[in-house]
Amino acid sequence: MATEKSAGAQFEHWASLISAIAAPITVLGTLLFYFGYVSSASEYAYFGINVDTIGLSTQAYIMRSPQTLLAPLLVLTLASAGFLTLNAAVHKRITAAVTTDASAIQVQRMWRIKRRTQRSRLFGLSAVAVGFIILFGYQYMRDWPIYGLVTPLLIGIGAEIVAYTSHILNLLHRLEGKQRWGAAKDSQSAWSMHDQDSGSLLARRTASVFVYVLIAASVFWATATVAQWSGRGLAEYAAIHFDALPSVILDTKEQLWLHDPFPVEVKTLPASEGQTFHYRYRGLRLLIVGQDRMFLVPAVWSSSDSTLIVPLDGSVRVQFQFENQVP
Could you check whether the bond before residue 270 is cis, i.e. omega within 30 degrees of 0? Predict the structure, then answer.
């Protein structure tokens, strides 16, 4: 019986450990997939392609996300380092203000810290208010190019300032409460003070949860905007450097009847016995390969051009040219 209980406890331990590891990995994978998808959708929309028609796999979207997330991760890392430095400096000043021997100087320092913190919180609340004004004014400001980045940054940074300054004010309040608690002569007065603090604890925790959700949503929105911009930037770079894409020679059974003008060289192949391909197209570049099709673009970008979708079903013959560079 003891052996069965031990085995059951060990199984529960490993199950909980696997759950603790799998849950964050699942969330991380979902986020990587989403940002990879957003970036790819923006990139291929530039060429008139709905990304869903390409048929990329989940793994492909995840592998595309690191390049998109590089800049946001660097910014968040630097911001976290700056926050930790600021937090250490603030706590050092509070400690110096509390541990000083002169009571008058102590009160003055605490008052200055509290006043500056209150001003900072007011600034954070103002930033959040401006962000929400812009958010609800989407109908009038949606054409603003940086709307999708400025709005979440105002809300997120403002909410973070409010959260941190509220933490500092609560810390100062607790320190002042401890001083009053130690100086209190009447135990009933001390109990009343403790009861009031306990009554406001639930409200503070609820407000904290709301603020942290607001920060997380703002970071998510800003990162998604950066992913869109990153995809568009990749598309514009590719359009400028079409010559860096693989060169394709396409043989077809029927004439494609591309729109005129289309900067592609067309040649009729000589008739021969058993020949099923009659037309050869040069000057095409491979943009991307989907699940069962290729997406081809001209060698030189033009706003009047289009993306050619070629099925990989034997109806065409494809050759890839070597790069024009002697080894």
Answer: no
- C-alpha span between 104 and 17 (Å, rounded): 54
CA 164, CA 81: separation in Å to the nearest integer? 15
* 3-class secondary-structure state, position 271: coil
Q: Give residues with Cβ within 8 angstroms of 321, minimum separation 6.
A: 246, 247, 248, 249
How many C-alpha atoms does 237 have within 13 Å on its Cβ side?
7
**Amino acid sitting at position 208:** S
208-230: average pLDDT: 90
pLDDT of 186 reads 47
Whether the predicted pLDDT of 282 surpasses 80: yes
> Tens digit of pLDDT for each residue in 44-70?
999 999 999 998 888 888 888 888 888
- Report residue 185: phi and psi, to 5°: -90, -30
Closest CA to 71 of 39, 41, 47: 39
**What was the pLDDT predicted at 234?**
92
Measured at the CA of 133, the angle between CA 127 and CA 134, to 5 degrees, comes to 90
